[in-house]
Amino acid sequence: MTNKNRHIRIIAASVAGQLHASQNMPCQDHYRYTVARNLVAVVSDGAGSAKYGKIGARILCQTLCDLLKNASFEKIEEEIVRAVKVVRQKLTLHRLNKTKDDIGLAPFAATLVGVVYHQQQGIFFHIGDGAALSLHDDGLFTASRPENGNFSCETFFFTQQAWRENLRFTKITDARSILLMSDGLTSFAFRPDYQNIESKFVTPINDFLLGESSAVKARKALSNTLNTPRAQKLNPDDKTLVWIKVS
User: Going by CATH, does the domain composed of 9-245 fall within 1.10.10.10?
Assistant: First the structure.
């Protein structure tokens, strides 16, 4: 995607997890980003148990980017809520929704983590697992952490009836870099208690991407990092990372 704001640079990669790869199945993650009045980036993980989870993830990412790229940042939380409602309405009318109502959204289940950034201030919006990080000066960071249900294997989806109650917002200012990731990477990016980031993972990736001027080389290196045998062994889930330099 073309980026007209020279100080913004975006590198993203998505790889199928070991489980999907072994079954010759496609990656269920989807991501999208765009830069207009606002920078918008979204990552969604289609639920493995949902028949059309990848479709739900794709439509979610595309629609949110389209609706939020020129949205009023002064009312951005309202705009995000409205945009998710539009996605849900689209899927209610989708040809694969047999019941043509909210009950028929379950096969499109997907998580959501995204950012809208405008003039050195931004907001993370988040349903379910996955995570978002903004890195600041002096080693400081702001995180939107994973959220699971009663059990670690459970999470929340934008297709559920209680989606609004599970939609979380986290404000950020003066970020240097922003990282959005699906749940396949959260155990790499955070310490086990999720209170602190894992600097041995986050810092080398951020430093490399800041220093690599070739987008092609940077994207290839990021993809290779996510797809190493060790990474796949440690977490067999699909893995997506969107890295953004914003200043």
Answer: no
